[in-house]
Design a protein that fits this description.
The chain is of the alpha/beta class and 404 residues long. The protein has 16 helices and nine strands. It starts with a helix and ends in a 6-residue tail after the last helix. The structure holds nicotinamide-adenine-dinucleotide.
């Protein structure tokens, strides 16, 4: 038991130093950001001036069918830019969808990629753009900075708020054989152009607003607690936390509250910038297992475990959580009360939005494998404030089993 745990912790700590250094030194694309309502159309009007002949518009079938992209398509047509549409991206995209998009890109002779959608679409679009000059299978990309050549020019227009994928050096792609989610990390995945246009997030129904908003909050909080955080990332993460706690309930209640929609889109972008430099923590490590084993949507899975993970870290994070609570506008004197107030605030937010508290299809026989995988994921790539023991992780996952 404890000697093994100590050895493991030593190994994880050494790895975390390496990850911290990599995150700091990782060369990344610079992106140009268009912001404000209508900015997606502004960006699309600009695309022909960059000299592209034909672009691949990547999205999913629901969004394409809903008419959300009509304005974008019209604006491309008006500006005489040819495009082909790949709408085969599914939630938690598999590599086969990336390959199919890439084949269409080739056969249509496209020379740039525009992704319009949630994190699933943006992750797939980013990989399609990268794959063009870097042929390989998913195993080849598994890891950090595996691609040798830059990808095609990539334009990202998020329709959820969100994953932050429009700014992160990562694409989360599922291996269809093992169902494992692989985080491809490469600075060449950072989109070159971004439009933060809340007109495109307005149509999210409440449950997707809630799930994607809690994903952004989890990014902000886990980034703030990361050992790789810097004053800049902490400022971005704290600002995002404050904004999300205030505006997410508003956007959930009234999807047409455009002030709340705009605030959420900016916050999820800032949280993305922050965690793209610091990585995340155990909430994500456990949420990925819930996605893999139970099919729980990513944001819902994060929301199910974030307060519990924060509580499990215990005393070592009280000071940090307290400073985050104060920056988020909570007026509490001592650190312990401030930390508890923040955790309670997150729990209340999740309850207020009637989010599911238990995953469907979680069986006790799946738990050991999930715990092991979550432990390894956090140990391998997340600079967490403290390494949780297997028992501590198991307690969090077991708490998710529905009492019947
Ligand atoms: P999603 O992209 O899977 O979309 C969820 C559903 O919402 C889909 O059915 C989609 O059609 C719908 N939808 C999207 N925008 C809508 C809109 N404006 N109106 C109505 N419906 C809309 O959800 P997501 O949470 O944005 O992305 C999740 C994926 O992103 C996961 O695969 C996750 O692993 C990944 N992710 C990536 C990063 C990164 O840094 N690259 C970070 C976090 C999560």
């Amino acid at each position: 038991g404890s000697t093994v745990d100590q050895m493991k912790t030593l190994y994880y700590k050494a790895r975390a130093q390496g990850v911290k250094l990599l995150l700091r030194l990782l060369p990344r694309n610079q992106s140009v950001v268009y912001a404000g309502r209508g900015s997606a159309l502004d960006l699309c009007r600009q695309v022909p001036t960059f000299g592209h002949q034909k672009v691949l518009l990547v999205t999913d079938r629901f969004l394409d069918g809903s008419g959300l992209l009509d304005g974008i398509k019209e604006s491309l047509q008006e500006n005489q830019l040819e495009f082909a549409v790949y709408d085969g991206v599914k939630p938690d995209p598999e590599f086969e969808q990336v390959q199919a998009g890439n084949e269409l890109l080739r056969s249509e002779g496209c020379d740039a990629v525009i992704g319009v959608g949630g994190g699933s679409v943006l992750d797939a679009a980013k990989m399609i753009a990268l794959l063009h000059h870097n042929p390989g299978d998913l195993a080849f990309f598994d890891g950090i900075q595996k691609a040798k050549k830059p990808g095609l020019p990539m334009f990202a227009i998020p329709t959820t708020a969100g994953t932050g994928s429009e700014t992160t050096p990562a694409s989360v792609i599922t291996d269809s054989k093992t169902h494992r989610k692989i985080a491809v990390a490469d600075g060449k995945l950072v989109p070159h152009y971004v439009a933060l246009d809340a007109d495109l997030t307005r149509t999210m129904p409440p449950h997707i607003t809630a799930a994607t908003g809690m994903d952004a909050l989890t990014h902000a909080v886990e980034s703030y607690l990361s050992k790789a955080s810097t004053p800049t990332t902490r400022e971005l993460a704290a600002g995002a936390t404050r904004t999300i706690l205030e505006h997410l309930p508003r956007a959930w209640r009234d999807g047409n509250d455009m002030q709340a929609r705009e605030a959420m889109l900016t916050a999820s972008f800032h949280a993305g910038v922050a965690f793209g430099r610091t990585s995340v923590g155990y909430a994500h490590a456990i949420a990925h297992q819930l996605g893999r084993v139970c099919g729980t949507p990513h944001g819902e899975a994060n929301a199910m475990v974030l307060p519990e993970v924060l509580a499990a870290y215990g005393e070592c994070v009280h000071g940090t959580l307290a400073s985050l609570a104060r920056k988020a506008g909570m007026d509490v004197d001592d650190d312990l009360s401030a930390a508890r107030a923040l955790i309670a605030g997150i729990t209340e937010l999740r309850d207020e939005m009637h989010m599911p508290t238990h995953p469907e299809r979680l069986n006790s026989e799946d738990i050991p494998g999930m715990v092991k995988a979550a432990e390894a994921e956090a140990g391998d790539i997340y600079p967490v404030p403290r390494y949780l023991s297997r028992q501590e992780i198991r307690a969090i996952v077991e708490g998710l089993i529905q009492d019947s």
